[in-house]
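$ run holo --ligand "adenosine-5'-triphosphate" --emit tokens
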Amino acid sequence: MNVLKSVKYPGFTRDIVSFGLVKSVNIDNGEVKVQLALATNDPNVPATIKNDAEKALRAIDGVRSAKVLIDIHAPPTGAGAGVGAARIPGIKHVIAVASGKGGVGKSTVAANLAVALEQTDTRVGLCDCDIYGPSISLMFGTRERPMATEENKIVPIEQYGLRLMSMGFLLDDTSPAILRGPMVTRYTQPPGTGDIQLTIVQTVALAGAIIVTTPQEVALIDARKAATMFDKVNVPVLGLIENMSYFVSPSDGKRYDIFGSGGGEREAKRLRVPLLGQIPIDIATREASDRGMPIVGEDRQSPVTAEFKKIAETLRKTLP
Ligand SMILES: Nc1ncnc2c1ncn2[C@@H]1O[C@H](COP(=O)(O)OP(=O)(O)OP(=O)(O)O)[C@@H](O)[C@H]1O
Ligand SMILES: [Mg+2]
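-- output --
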């Protein structure tokens, strides 16, 4: 097992043991047989793993032969996550909202999209996986404390018809005790990794991912990386959302392309995914977030609301 820990999943810094791919190891008189299981459509992945693992095993003193057998499953269609991810009972679709870069509007998009989806008669929960700078509690204007059940489960907060969970509900000065015990390690130290995005795709079967980007090149490069990451683990990228696309001056109605224009569209084409929407830089949107009510829930007339509604409709069609 120790030697197998040196075998990386192709394209990742994580190894095949920490990904949970090793099902059994049999050693008989210097002959090693290893059984792996993985879900992928890419024939290069098992080939590379087999080769690397056998080579590593044969290098061990006393090993006369090493054989690595791999059970390959096709990744569940439309509910990707290549490696050992589980469905959440009672939840039909889990959508990841991600970006390759900080500050591009993930939280804003996630919050408004959740409200927009809820308004299409869907029951929606929003889990803020940002443990370092959780902002969903702020954006929904509640510091209510989630209750724990006797089975040690956390009951989400309900706000504006949505179920919410965020580290922001747990972290404050008044009651740090709630963070003791296994919860801290579970939330902050996913086993065997520092890479949160990867841990999420590994833990939960995602229906797909939405990548948030701003239009300029430095953001698009990182959006591309994020999309590639999801692709590698067989999570379909449902599309890009270009945030801070443009600014319409309230004084003269003139449009300014502060971060340039067309970037999201070009990148979506390049990645062969839809551009789900373009959200302008909008003062009311920022103010609403700071006030604790996503703009979609507050202002039906806002162009930002209209854009999020359009995105929600598209998602409803994509994920029936
Ligand atoms: N379309 C927009 N118009 C105006 N302000 C916006 C818009 N999108 C986001 N903002 C503001 O920009 C700031 C950063 O947005 P947000 O917190 O959603 O980004 P993030 O990607 O979640 O950041 P982090 O990486 O730090 O978690 C916030 O103050 C938010 O209110
Ligand atoms: Mg955020």
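-- notes --
The pocket of adenosine-5'-triphosphate (ligand 1) is lined by residues 99, 102-108, 130, 133, 135, 243-244, 279, 281-282, 285-286, 289 (CB under 6 Å).
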